[in-house]
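TL;DR need structure tokens for one chain.
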Amino acid sequence: MKLKIPKFLRKKRNIWIVSILAIVVIVMVYFYTRGGSPGSIQTATVAKENLEETVLATGQVVSGTDLDLGFQTGGIVRKVYVKAGDKVSAGQTLAFLDQSIASANLTSAKGALAQAQASYEKLLAGTTLENIKIYEDAVDSAQHDLGGAYLSALNTLDDAYAKIYNALTKVSTLQSDYFYLLDQQGVRVASSKDKLNTGVSNIKNYLDIAKGGYSNTDIDNALAQALVSLNNASSALGAIREVCDEGVYYSRVSATDKTAIDTQRTNINAALTSVTDAKQSAASYKIALQKAQHQLDLQKAPPTPADLDSAEAQIISAQGQVDSALAALNNLIIVAPSSGTITEVDVKVGEQATAMAKAIVLQDISNLHAEASVSEANIASLAVGQNIDYTFDALGPDEHFFGTVLSINPASTVISGVVDYEIKGSIEDAPNIKPGMTANMSILIAKKENALSVPSTAVINKNNKKYVRVVDDLKKFTYHEAEVQTGIQADGGVIEILSGLNEGQTIITFMK
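>> reply
TL;DR here they are.
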């Protein structure tokens, strides 16, 4: 049987066309059977860039002073001196309620005080033996109280010695663990340790003398020396704590040891407060004893008022009534506790004000900061002092402001199952910023200058290692996988390459 050739192929030109198409198909099959073609991949060049890694957060502008002021009691508003936007100074009167009853009570109390004082002046008769015995008992009681105060002071000194000794022990351990070098920080730590050592010796010496004789004067001297030594110890611990955050010691000294130093300083400050209280208590009881002795001498000295004690009590009571009436009058007045700007006034003249209700809001709009919530996924990357780049919805995305992270609240808040932490950031040189504005915060957590980098899509994970496909011949579509070590995951989908690649190499970022 004779094969019939299609009419289309009988022309020589058509045969050439079919042949060329066949060759194209064969070439395409060849490339696709090898895994791809130059058109099925995307490449990039390994280059050096300035990299930044940031954490984004949205927060709100808050005033450093944000006070809701109100009247301590209810009443009719008689005067409001301010309006929203007014600047006020500390101590300035802002508003007051009707004062007619309070003023009358104050006048009455002042009259009672004047009468009590006049009665006292009239007392000319001498006192009885029974009254003298009362004042002698008061002297004995004051002496007993003073003795008890000095005995308690010795216990306070024992506690202060224990705390400064413990601080010295902790600093000695810290020095041997971290600051054994004679660098600048090591010298400062050694100097601070010497201050602690001197304080321990001084407190011990004076305490031993006080315990040896139980003399009030010796105890007073021991208390005075303890105050000096504890103040020096607190300053020394503060200096050591600052050194722990300097240079290589910032990361070398453990957080536990830093916290331990803070704890020791807290203990020293607590001891300082206790010694101060003990010293003041002894001084107070001394005054009480002197007063009791004076009263006794006054009773014994002719001529002595017969009812001096009662008269003095009446004076004290009358003075208390004056103070109470004056306090009641002051409760009808709102006074600015600090300087700032009035941002809200919720009371009007003639209306009935409610006790303790918000009437006036005082803010310091010149002292602003931003507060925002950051998720637990990002909070570990943040630290106090990191730089913040701000934009504000009210001012548009092109106007930038700057600040730093001021604090990170260690306590979390959980909203809809999401764990967040509150951070505060300073806002520098921002005259147009107002409380309540929405702040868009870009917090810089890492920065590398002139770092070797590639698109993050170029890095593949395989067998717990990271690789990048390095092109050998783009025309032939040949490449090899190079193992790499990566650094920071920078903004813009770029990742730092620490090792494994060289600048200028062509790499594959995407392949079908």
